[in-house]
Amino acid sequence: MVRAAVLHGVGEAIRVEEIELPAPGPGQVRVRIAAAGVCHSDLSLADGTLDQAFPVVLGHEGSGTVAAVGEGVTHVSPGDPVLLIWAPPCGACWFCEHGEPHLCAKAMDASRVPYARLGDGTEVLPGLGTAAFAEETVVPAAGVVPLPPGAALEEAALLGCAVTTGTGAVWNTAQVPPGASVAVIGLGGVGLSAVQGARVAGATVIVAVDPDEGKRKLAVEMGATDALEPGADLGKRVRALTGGRGVDHAFECVGRSATIRAAWGLTRRGGMTTVVGVGGKDDKVEFSALELFHFARTLTGCVYGSTDPARDVPRLVAYVRDGRVDLGALVTARIGLDGIDEAFAAMRRGQGARSLVIP
Ligand code: APR
Ligand code: ZN
Ligand code: ZN
User: Fold this and answer.
1) Ligand 2 centroid – CA 53 distance (Å)
2) E-assigned strands of 198-285?
3) Is 343 found in the same domain as 286?
4) How many domains does the chain have?
5) Residues 77-117: tens digit of each pLDDT
6) Residue span of the structural domain in which 183 resides
């Protein structure tokens, strides 16, 4: 039995319960969780914005130590420090074979299969196939990437989603070149990571936008050249910083049609907007057919920062080690499994960057 934060339905309070976690089967790994970040996607799964069946153990941004490996698992052994990957590429589908492992057709398979039982025998689902809001979890072997010894294990959890997604949006999806101008809308764990990614990419103008003053301050510490409050004249203020044109690249890190539309409006003629946020299925974005021609802009979706974990995790760990990417500054709270509802509430208010659950 292990303690886990179980959610029984939309809008319910999370209950910390003992769950029965089986030994890892063939091709699975059991991981003792060191830390798990609270991501906005967890809140969206909990509040019904994104579809989720219940009961579920959420948490998809985790790090830990291998407790046991199932038959056939050779890339990690008990005791190894590891990062959890919530969309593990299968390596064999059309997308994986065509260099787009972040779009793997099988990446979400584990999220649909119960992985443990409650005390009364009810089957529980693993949130995004990961279930990191628990003392231990069991995941597919491909969802476990070894971390080099010496990596700060708790903070490394942030590499599981926010940092990989935010930096990957800049480096992999948009491929921002040195000297570019960039706007980042929404400065949670994901947006602040996009700011850091833009700085590392060599962007010379990095405009960070968020209603929360604390977040704007953090963004400046992480490399933003300008920090602005959203508002009706945002486009005007951004054009004033970019020779009257608008930015080359905008990153929407909120997940709402209004902010997608605002991000799009900040780009120059020929500019590109990368939508990193995950919004609801009925939240529609509008633009006119004529403006598409006139501005010749690009709008693109982005899944998991277009990451290939095998390539990107070692690169990110190296950047963390040499100080180019700061994980510690993203962590604004350390909480227990019983603090997740409060972390969700703070997230709804837009307060705090990342809360790290230490189970
Ligand atoms: N303009 C700019 N920023 C805004 C606005 C707005 N109109 N409204 C809210 N925000 C800010 C919030 O203040 C907050 O700082 O957006 C930020 C969102 O951050 P988090 O809630 O911490 O979300 P995060 O975990 O970073 O995820 C961002 O990416 O992966 C997806 O599902 C995730 O859609 C979510 C997005
Ligand atoms: Zn996430
Ligand atoms: Zn695949």
Assistant:
1) 18
2) 205-209, 226-228, 247-252, 267-275
3) no
4) 2
5) 999 999 999 999 999 999 999 999 999 999 999 999 999 99
6) 164-305
